[in-house]
């Protein structure tokens, strides 16, 4: 059906804005909530550690190892999960992932020592694997490329929001210590995992798989959106017509040098997000704060980062520019990490960590817009998963390394130096990619969905 089905009474840009606003309002709030819970379940162990490590006899190195094993499992199962989603369908597969990780999260409350803690983190990584790249792929089914930086930023704002709202909640749940003969950290892990199961069942009812089956859109809106997305896919296929599918696409993607460069770039951001979510409560607690004070102060950097993340994603789409929009936040992150070596003040450290997270979360939208725009359609599923998977190899290694460095040196600023280096290297690689960026990789701004 041609785009001539657009009502003549409505200007084309107004019709597009109305259609995309409907899509945004239907999908984004629910997906943000799902990712919020996913990240809470991933990083709430950082707050649980304030009392759990003592109860279980976990050393700093053992805690870091458990954090690293999460990403080992995540890496092993991520690409197969994304390929399975293409076969099974987004609605069913995303629901399956959420229900599984909720059950594992509840089980994590009953670990008894370093070995069972490590096993629980590995199983949680296996359960959650595929959710993030699956949703990024799912968004490409619904949003034309001109919208993707802002949409990815809106979706990924769940990461800093999970720590902004989760920090005081987790600190409060620790006060349930002794209720029903459970420790506070056990209540924390149980109560924050239950929503994942409930949202998993809700996904079955609320997430349509493709625009063609979207009953919340009119026939004209479905036709316009389907035509727009099909035209973009055909254009990309014409530019790169010979590509493998399925498992062959995985090997084709892994042979692509740019995929590896993008993975190294994202490794810095991914490692920073996950490392600070796990370790920042302990960094702040080291200044002699109570659990509640730690929770309240931990909110500040993530709250600032959440607001700036949306602004930066909108800016990237309005300008249609991806390279500087990704490189500048990485540079800010790297420099701010380096400056933590120069201070022992709580407030100076808090300011610098706020700048770290501001830069780190700002790159999410433009980076994934750049990545999805440069991958051929036949390789999109495997490509997104491969970039995220390879990046998480670095995340897992650095999470474990930080635990070892902290134990050996007694200094968190020194332990965070690998992140300083990795984000600095990532910044340089963005400019390297930019040297060969094709003009057609830029996109034009579209009607801002943020108004929805």
TrEMBL record:
Subcellular compartments: Membrane
Membrane topology of the entry: Multi-pass membrane protein
InterPro entries listed in its UniProt record: MFS (IPR011701), MFS_dom (IPR020846), MFS_trans_sf (IPR036259)
Transmembrane intervals: 23-40, 60-80, 92-112, 118-139, 151-173, 185-207, 259-280, 295-314, 335-363, 383-405, 412-433
KW Transmembrane helix (keyword) present: yes
Family matches, as Pfam families: MFS_1
Keywords, sorted A to Z: Membrane, Transmembrane, Transmembrane helix, Transport
CDD domains hit by this protein: MFS_ExuT_GudP_like (cd17319)
Positions of the Major facilitator superfamily (MFS) profile domain: 27-438
Official protein name in the record: MFS transporter
């Amino acid at each position: 059906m041609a785009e001539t089905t657009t009502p003549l009474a409505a200007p084309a840009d107004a019709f597009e804005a109305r259609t995309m606003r409907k899509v945004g309002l239907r999908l984004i709030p629910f997906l943000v909530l799902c990712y919020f819970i996913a990240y809470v379940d991933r990083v709430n162990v950082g707050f649980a550690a304030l009392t759990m490590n003592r109860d279980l006899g976990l050393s700093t190195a053992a805690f870091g190892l458990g954090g690293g094993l999460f990403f080992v499992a995540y890496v092993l199962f991520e690409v197969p999960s994304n390929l399975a989603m293409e076969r099974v369908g987004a609605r069913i597969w995303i629901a399956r992932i959420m229900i599984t990780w909720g059950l594992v999260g509840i089980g994590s409350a009953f670990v008894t020592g370093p070995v069972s803690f490590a096993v629980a983190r590995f199983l949680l990584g296996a359960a959650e694997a595929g959710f993030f790249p699956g949703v990024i792929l799912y968004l490409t089914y619904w949003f034309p490329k001109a919208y993707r930086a802002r949409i990815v930023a809106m979706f990924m704002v769940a990461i800093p929001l999970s720590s902004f709202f989760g920090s005081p909640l987790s600190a409060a749940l620790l006060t349930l210590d002794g209720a029903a003969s459970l420790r506070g950290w056990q209540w924390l892990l149980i109560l924050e995992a239950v929503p994942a199961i409930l949202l998993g069942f809700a996904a079955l009812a609320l997430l349509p798989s493709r625009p063609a089956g979207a009953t919340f859109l009119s026939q004209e809106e479905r036709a316009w959106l389907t035509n727009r997305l099909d035209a973009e896919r055909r254009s990309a296929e014409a530019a790169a017509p010979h590509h493998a599918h399925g498992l062959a696409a995985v090997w084709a993607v892994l042979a692509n040098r740019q995929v590896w460069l993008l993975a190294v770039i994202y490794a810095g951001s991914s490692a920073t997000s996950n490392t600070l979510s796990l370790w920042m409560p302990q960094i702040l607690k080291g200044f002699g704060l109570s659990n509640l004070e730690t929770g309240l102060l931990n909110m500040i950097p993530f709250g600032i980062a959440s607001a700036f993340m949306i602004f930066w994603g909108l800016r990237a789409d309005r300008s249609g520019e991806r390279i500087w929009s990704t490189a500048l936040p990485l540079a800010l992150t790297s420099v701010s990490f380096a400056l933590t070596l120069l201070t022992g003040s709580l407030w100076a450290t808090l300011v610098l960590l706020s700048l770290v997270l501001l830069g780190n979360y700002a790159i999410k939208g433009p980076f994934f817009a750049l990545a999805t725009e440069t991958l051929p359609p036949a390789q999109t599923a495997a490509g997104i998963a491969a970039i995220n998977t390879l990046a998480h190899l670095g995340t897992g290694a650095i999470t474990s390394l930080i635990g070892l460095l902290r134990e050996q040196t007694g200094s968190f600023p020194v332990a965070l130096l690998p992140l300083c280096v990795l984000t600095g290297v990532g910044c340089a690689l963005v400019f390297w990619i930019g040297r060969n960026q094709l003009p057609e990789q830029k996109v034009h701004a579209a009607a801002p969905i943020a108004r929805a």
